[in-house]
Please model this.
Amino acid sequence: MISRAALTPLVVGMLTASLISAVVLQHHENVISDLVAEPAPERVQEQIPPPITTVPTPVPTPTVAPLPPPPPPVALPKPKPVVPKKPLLAKSAPCVAVVRACVKLSTKQAWLLDGAGGVTYGPVPITSGKKGDKTPTGMHAVLWKDADHKSAEFDDAPMPWSVFFAAGGIAFHTGSLRAQSSGCIHLSDSSARKFFSTLGVGDTVQVLK
Model:
């Protein structure tokens, strides 16, 4: 039997190295065995929650009350036809009451009125336009006056106390009561003066057939 003292340091070193290697190798084998023996960890599958399905809450349909039946038609009274009132006539002249001068060609007469139906002057005799130059009938208004007018159309023929009341130079004025005129109303000189002093611009004149 070889004693420990006889072993040289070299041998001791070799033995020590061999022992360490054996221990390390054994340790590796144990580790590998443990790894092989240990089952692999199971893969935990991720749990995905199921989708949440939202069920819409049904909205109740509003109940609409039926409309009441329409009322029966009301029979409206028929409007009464509007009957135009006849103009008020003058009391003693054939014209309407609102005029200020009235002429009746068929009777060869003329009047002055107060505008309310009352006659203030007349009837007085007149002559009027001859055939082809008839005095225009209808409602007229005094346009202008000239106390000493002379006709430019008839070689400056005098037309004293002229009261012009219609287009074309138609006027009341002093003139012959026997011969017909070219459209004017001839009056005696006194009547022409009265018409001239009574009538003003804008006054209404009515001439009847």
Observations:
- The CA atoms of residues 18 and 24 lie 10 Å apart.
